[in-house]
Amino acid sequence: MSLLDIRDLRVSIGGAAILKSLSLTLAGGEILGLVGESGSGKSLTALSVMGLLPPQASRTGSVRLAGAELTTKSETELCALRGREMGMIFQEPMSALNPLLSIGQQVAETVRVHRRASRQEAEQIARHTLDRVGLPAERFPLGLYPHELSGGQRQRVAIAIAIALTPRLLIADEPTTALDVTTQAQILALLQRLVREDGIGLVLVTHDLAVVAQVADRVAVMKDGEIVEQGRIGKLFHSPRHPFLSTLLHDAAHRPVRMPHPDAAASPILEVEGVVRDYPPSGRSHRRGGEAFRAVDGVSLFIRPGENVGLVGESGCGKSTLLRTILGLEAAQAGDIRVYGVSLGRAQGAALRQLRRQIQVVFQDPWGSFDPRWRVERVVGESFHLLEVAPAARQRRRQVEEVLERVGLSPSDADRYPHEFSGGQRQRIAIARALITEPSILVLDEAVSALDVSIRAQILDLLAGLSQGLSCLFVSHDLAVVQAITDRVYIMHDGRIVESGATEAVFNSPQHPYTAGLAAAAPNLARALRQREEQAARDEPVPARLLASGTLFRVKRRVQGII
Amino acid sequence: MSAARGSRTGGRPLSRSFRLGAGLTVLFLFCALLSLVWTPFDPAAMLISDKLQLPSPTHWLGTDHLGRDVLSAIMGGARTSLGVALVAVGLGMAGGVPLGLWAAARQGWVDEIVMRGNDLVFAFPALLLAILITALLGAGALNAILAIGIFNVPVFARVSRAGALALWQKEFILAARVAGKGSLRISLEHVLPNLLGSLIVLGTIQFSLGVLAEAGLSYVGLGAQAPTPSWGRMLAEAQTLTALAPTLALFPGLALTATVLGLNLLGDGLRDWLDPRSAQGDAW
C-alpha cells in the first residue's frame, strides 16, 4: 500500500477549476518531484493534501494517507495529523518562523501540541532534532532567534519543526528557491538523508527540473491543474511522451543564438577600477564607533562594446552594492567608474545625465519595479528625463510604441497598467524602459530569476537579439543563465572579484576553490541525468534489446544535446 | 489622473458598509450646509414657555431647557463640527505630509529632527494643549481648530514617513533614480500619489476624531462658545437634565455617533476602492 494515494482530486475556487482530476501516489522513503510552471497548481495540490485550502475552495476526490481518507476528516482530526503524521516546509524560511520565539521554542511547540510531553522532554526532542538537521548544540543553542540565523540555517529550523515527530509524509514547497546554490545543495542533501533515515515520503514541489533530476526518484509534471506526465526520472527525462515536458526540458537548457562575439581589441566602454564601498556599522551604532563593513573591496572590471559580461556571486557578496555604485546611486569611497573614459564621480548636471543615459537597468522583481499608478506609456517614458532635448508629446508616444514593439509587445499596451501584465510581459516592459534612452550598457540585475523556464527562454532570446551594439552586464546567482548568455564572467565573493575570464573557461576549469564549489553546487540537469545513468549502469546491465535498437545511443545524443 | 482613476475603478461594486458610510457622511454634510441658509428655527432663539418639549410636528426633535429647537441646534452643531474638523485635518495634512515626505527622502538628521519633534507633540495630551491655547488666546472655535490641527501634524507626518520609507525601497523608485530624478521630484511623482490612498483613509478617520475632539472640547467649555451651536455643549447641558428629558442627550449623542461611524466606514471603503490592484483582487 502506498503512503500517499491521491485519486481524482479536483479543486475549484469560485467556480474556476484549478485542479482537474489529479491522481498520484507516493511510497514511504520515496521522493516525488512535483514540477510545473507558476500557476500550474503545484502548491494547491500540496495544500489540499494538508487540508489547508482557502475556505472558498471546494474539493472532491480522495486523498489517502497510509490508507486513511483525509478528505472526510474534520478540522480537529486534521490538526492532530498535521505536524505529527505529515509536515510541510515552505519557500520563505524567514516568514515561516515566528520572529518572537527562539528556535528551541518553535521546535518544542510542535512536540507539545501533539504529545503530552513535559517542557523538558520537548526541549530534549527539539535539541535532538536540531542536531539531526545540522545545527549542533555548541553553535546553535535552543535560545537563538530566527534573525540570528542565515537563510539556510532558518530553513534547517523549518525542516526540524516539520520532522520533529518523524512524520510519514513531508511536503516541501520550493524549499530551496530562496536560497543560494551552495546552501541549496546542502538543504537538498539534508532532505535526501532524512528521507533515507526515517523512511519519510517526500513530495518536493519545485519549478527547477535540475533539482528534481538531482534528488527525486519519480517526477510528476503538472500543467494547468493536471498531471500530464508521471514516472521514473531517467526514463521520463530521456524520452518524454508529453510535448509539454520536452518543451520544458528544452527551455531549461535553452541557449539563445547570439551575434558574433565582440571585438576583443576594442577599448572598453565601462571601466570600474578599484571601487571600494564601506557601510557604517549597522543602524545607528556608528555613534558608538566600531568598524565599517566593507561591502565592495577594490573591485575592478570592464565591459567592451557589444560584450555580455556576467557577475556571479551569492547573496551578501556585495554584487548589489557594486551595481548601485555603477548606476551612480551610491558614491564609492575609493576607485573610479568611467563610461567612455569619462569619470562618473566627477560628472555633474548635463554631463552626468548624459552618462546615466548610457547605463540603464532591468531589475529582478517584475512586480515591484513599476509605479502601480502609472500607465505603461509613462513608465517606459520616465527616462526621457535624461535626454538633452525631451521629445514632444507625440514624438514621445511614437518612441514608446516603437520600443514596445521592439521588445515584443503591442503599441496599444502603452495605455494599460503594469498590473494587467504577466511576469514575463512585465520584464519586457522593464527592458523597454531601459532601452528608451538608447543606452550602450544594459545592466540586468537577476532579471530572469523570477521567471518560469519557458518565459525565461523567451526573454533570453529577446536579450540576445537586442545585444547588437549593446553591452549587457548580467548580475545573477544562476550559473545556467550566466553560462548561456555571457562571453566573460566575474566571480565575486566577500566583496572581491575572486576569478574572471571567458565564461566557458571559468566554468569548465575553475581556478579558485570558491568558483569550483559554486559550479559543483549549482543544479545541472545534464550532469544529474548523467550521474543517474552511471548509477543505473552500475546497478544493472544494459538490456541487449536497448543496445540493439539504438535507444541508448539516442539517449546519449539527447543528453549531449542538453549539455 | 481623475480620468485614469475612473477607468481603473469603473464597474467595481461598492461594499455595503461603504455605501452606509457614504450615506451617513452625506447626510451630515447636507445638514451642515443646509444650516448655513436654513434651519427650522433660529438655533439660538429661546422661548421659555416651550421648554423641554418632546418631539412634535412643530419641534421634530423637541426643545431644550431654554425652549431652543433641538433639530436646529443639531444642524448648526453639524456645521461647527464640520468646520472645525475640516480645517484642523487640513492643517494637519498641510503640515504633516511634507514633513513626513522630507524625512523619508532625506533620512539622517532631518529624519531625526522631524521625528523627535513629533514625539514632543505626542508627549502632551491633546486636552492639555487645548487648555494651554485657550488659556493664552481664550476659548473659541478657532482655538479648538488650532489645538486639533497641531495634533494632526505628527499623525500625518508619521504615516506619510512610514509609507514613504517603504516606497523608497521599491524598485520603481530605484528606476526613477536611475532615470536621474531628484528626491523632490520622486517624492511628488511617485511617493505622494502612492500614499494618497492611505492619506485619504487617514484623513477621514482623523476627520471623525476631529469631530469627537471638537465635541469633547466644547463639552468642557473650551470649544465653540454660545450662541454658536455645538454638539458637545448640547450634551453638557443635557447631562443635568437626563432624568427630566432623556431625549435631550439622545439626539446630539446619536448625531455624533452616526457621524463618526459614517466617516470610519467611508474611510475603510475608500481605501479598498482607491487601490488600483484591488480591481483584480490579486493577493500581491
Compose a concise summary of this entry:
The complex is a heterodimer of chains A (563) and B (284). Chain A is of the alpha/beta class and 563 residues long. In chain A, 39% of the residues lie in helices and 23% in strands.
Write the layout of secondary structure elements.
The complex is a heterodimer of chains A (563) and B (284).
Chain A: E1 4-13, E2 16-26, E3 31-36, H1 42-50, E4 57-65, E5 68-69, H2 75-81, E6 86-89, H3 93-96, H4 103-114, H5 119-132, H6 151-163, E7 169-173, H7 181-198, E8 201-206, H8 209-215, E9 218-223, E10 226-232, H9 233-238, H10 243-252, E11 270-279, E12 293-303, E13 308-312, H11 319-326, E14 334-339, E15 342-343, H12 349-358, E16 359-362, H13 376-380, H14 393-406, H15 423-435, E17 441-445, H16 453-466, E18 471-476, H17 479-485, E19 488-493, E20 496-502, H18 503-508, H19 513-521, H20 525-539, H21 544-549, H22 551-562
Parallel strand pairs in A: 3-8, 3-9, 6-7, 7-8, 13-18, 13-19, 16-17, 17-18
Antiparallel strand pairs in A: 1-2, 1-4, 4-5, 9-10, 11-12, 11-14, 14-15, 19-20
Chain B: H1 2-9, H2 16-37, H3 70-106, H4 108-122, H5 126-137, H6 141-168, H7 171-178, H8 183-219, H9 231-239, H10 247-274
Helix pairs in contact in B: 2-3, 2-10, 3-4, 3-6, 3-8, 3-10, 4-6, 5-6, 6-8, 7-8, 8-9, 8-10, 9-10
Structure characterization notes:
The complex is a heterodimer of chains A (563) and B (284). Chain A is α/β, with parallel strands linked by helices and 563 residues long. Chain A has 22 helices and 20 strands. Chain A has a six-stranded mixed β-sheet with strand order 6-7-8-3-9-10, sandwiched between helices. In chain A, strands 16-17-18-13-19-20 form a six-stranded mixed β-sheet, with helices on both faces. Chain A has a four-stranded antiparallel β-sheet with strand order 2-1-4-5, with helices on one face. In chain A, strand 14 and strand 15 form a beta hairpin. About 1% of the residues of chain A have low confidence. Chain B is mainly α. Chain B is built from ten helices and no strands. In chain B, helix 3 runs parallel beside helix 6, helix 3 packs antiparallel against helix 8 and helix 5 crosses helix 6. The radius of gyration of chain B is 22 Å and the shape is elongated. The two termini of chain B are 23 Å apart. The N terminus and C terminus of chain B are likely disordered. The interface between A and B is medium-sized, with 29 and 22 residues.
